[in-house]
């Protein structure tokens, strides 16, 4: 079976969901090593002047409510990404204030303009990730007409945030509304992946893989020790490494005790000492 999004060939159907805080370069590389078919970055502003490390050749997710900066940003990074994604799902207070993410759904014209610019700025695939809403079906149809290559759907409403039941039937309605591949998101874990892949083309693994890249299944060591090596190599900030140590401690016996100790850490050496026996 061939797994494809536009002209991009994928080695499998299980992706790392876009997540702002967990998806640093070291974590993305680890997920790839663990067997993940495609890594997504967290939402990124095309106006950002930060330096991006894209060694894993990820899907780079953009957000915003105007076309400003998109063309030049995409030109700058196009050769370093596997595909481009646009965020139509963020339910945060900041997104509400700035009118982007899931709060853009009423602004069909703005969405159209942004997706057209993205489509025209690359030969690589372009995807969108959307939430459940009254306009979501209209939006995915517009996106498909513009030439968007796949749709990611997290079938929860803005007010549900990240909890409550994922509306599987709504995701199926999205799947039926378009001919491009659909990536399912929402409470995906090792117990339901196979079943969901009977109905959808790809899945996003989100919270279930935070601190647990082994969920991607390659059966090799992708524990915190491996994360730390990559984080040091890529010179990640101490506070990011500490945050990930907390995440990795969640899946292990005695994790609560470890976290109590991690709170006190002030250096990478401290973290190593606390996590030492959990490589
Ligand atoms: C910490 C965190 C950060 C997230 N950041 C993003 C983001 O930047 N862009 C995005 O499209 N979705 C983001 N999401 C949503 C996830 O991609 C996913 O759709 C959602 O968590 C539901 O999947 P899950 O139940 O498997 O976690 C984030 C989720 C979490 C938990």
How would you explain this protein's 3D organization?
The chain is an alpha/beta fold and 279 residues long. The chain has 11 helices and 10 strands. The chain has helices spanning 25-34, 70-77, 93-98, 108-120, 136-146, 168-177, 193-199, 224-233, 238-249, 255-263, 268-275, and strands spanning 3-5, 8-10, 14-16, 38-39, 59-62, 83-88, 126-131, 150-154, 182-185, 202-205. The strands form 2 sheets. The protein has an 8-stranded parallel sheet with strand order 4-3-10-9-8-7-6-5, covered by helices on one side. Strands 1-2 form a two-stranded antiparallel sheet. It starts with a strand and ends with a helix. The site of flavin mononucleotide has 23 residues, from loops.
Topology:
Blueprint: E1 3-5, E2 8-10, E3 14-16, H1 25-34, E4 38-39, E5 59-62, H2 70-77, E6 83-88, H3 93-98, H4 108-120, E7 126-131, H5 136-146, E8 150-154, H6 168-177, E9 182-185, H7 193-199, E10 202-205, H8 224-233, H9 238-249, H10 255-263, H11 268-275
Parallel strand pairs: 3-4, 3-10, 5-6, 6-7, 7-8, 8-9, 9-10
Antiparallel strand pairs: 1-2
Helix pairs in contact: 1-8, 4-5, 8-9, 9-10
The chain binds flavin mononucleotide (FMN).
Describe what is shown at a glance.
The protein is 37% helix and 14% strand. It is of the alpha/beta class and 279 residues long.
CATH homologous superfamily annotation of the largest domain? Aldolase class I
Please estimate the helix content.
Answer: 25-40%
As a whole number of angstroms, the C-alpha radius of gyration is 19 Å
Main beta sheet: strand number and arrangement? 8 strands, parallel
Quaternary assembly:
single chain
The portion of residues forming beta strands comes to 5-15%
Q: What is the name of the CATH class of the largest domain?
A: Alpha Beta
* Overall strand count: 10
Integer tally of domains: 2
What is the count of helical runs? Answer: 11
């Amino acid at each position: 079976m061939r797994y494809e999004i536009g002209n991009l060939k994928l080695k499998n159907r299980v992706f790392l969901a876009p997540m702002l805080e967990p998806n640093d370069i070291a974590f993305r590389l680890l997920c790839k090593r663990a067997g993940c078919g495609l890594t997504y970055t967290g939402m990124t502003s095309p106006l950002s002047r930060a330096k991006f490390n894209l060694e894993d050749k990820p899907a780079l997710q953009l957000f915003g409510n105007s076309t400003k900066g998109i063309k030049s940003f995409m030109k700058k990074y196009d050769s370093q990404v596997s595909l481009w994604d646009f965020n139509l799902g963020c339910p945060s207070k900041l997104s509400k204030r700035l009118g982007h993410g899931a709060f853009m759904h009423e602004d069909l014209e703005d969405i159209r303009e942004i997706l057209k610019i993205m489509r025209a700025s690359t030969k690589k695939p372009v995807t969108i990730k959307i939430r459940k809403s009254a306009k979501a079906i209209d939006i995915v149809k517009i996106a498909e007409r513009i030439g968007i290559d796949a749709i990611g759907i997290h079938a929860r409403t803005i007010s549900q945030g990240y909890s409550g039941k994922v509306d599987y039937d709504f995701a199926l309605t999205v799947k039926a509304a378009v001919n491009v591949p659909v990536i399912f998101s929402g409470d995906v874990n090792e117990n339901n992946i196979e079943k969901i892949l009977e109905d959808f083309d790809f899945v996003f693994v989100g919270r279930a893989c935070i601190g647990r890249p082994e969920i991607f299944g390659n059966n090799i060591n992708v524990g915190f020790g491996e994360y730390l090596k990559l984080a040091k190599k890529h010179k990640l900030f101490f506070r990011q490494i500490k945050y990930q140590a907390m995440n990795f401690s969640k899946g292990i016996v005695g994790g609560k005790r470890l976290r109590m100790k991690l709170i006190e850490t002030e250096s990478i050496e401290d973290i190593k000492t606390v996590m030492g026996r959990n490589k």
